[in-house]
Design goal:
Length: 150
């Protein structure tokens, strides 16, 4: 990510990201790469339909004419998808918390999770962005049993 979309004086503008940590490469899982490729194919179709109205700004997620998506559009669509899937309403930002918690549940090292999220301090990742999964304490007890039980 090189830039961030922000509303400045009522207008959407691309601005530099906040920190050096925000400017990073993130390895994506295969399912995400596949989804992005499918999205790109749809976007190329939209570009053809839009013709001269298309505004190429090098963005990945855009309106049907290439302009940046406003936050309210993204949130509205996100909540529609949650409702359609029967998932309780959640904040969009909660996706970061979920990702961190799932990575920890899979045994991913805290420092790796910190780097994926772009935090400068591991304490931020551990204190704010991870949540103890219900089975985690039982898993820890079972592992202690495996080591110490005779």
């Amino acid at each position: 990510m090189r830039e961030s979309l922000q509303r400045i004086d009522g207008k959407l503008s691309l601005v530099d990201v906040k920190t050096d940590k925000s400017r990073r490469t993130v390895n994506l899982p295969r399912f995400a790469v596949s989804a992005l490729k499918a999205h790109r194919a749809r976007q190329l179709q939209e570009r053809l339909v839009a013709g001269t109205r298309w505004q190429d700004r090098g963005l990945v997620f855009t309106s049907t004419i290439g302009t940046p998506l406003d936050g309210w559009q993204v949130h509205r669509r996100y909540h529609e998808l949650l409702s359609k899937a029967g998932v309780p309403r959640k904040r969009f930002h909660d996706l970061r918390h979920t990702a961190a918690s799932l990575l920890f549940a899979q045994g991913v090292e805290p420092r790796v999770v910190m780097e994926i999220l772009g935090h400068s301090r591991i304490a931020t990742t551990l204190d704010i962005y991870t949540h103890l999964l219900p089975h985690a304490q039982q898993d820890a007890a079972d592992k202690m049993d495996a080591i110490l039980a005779t």
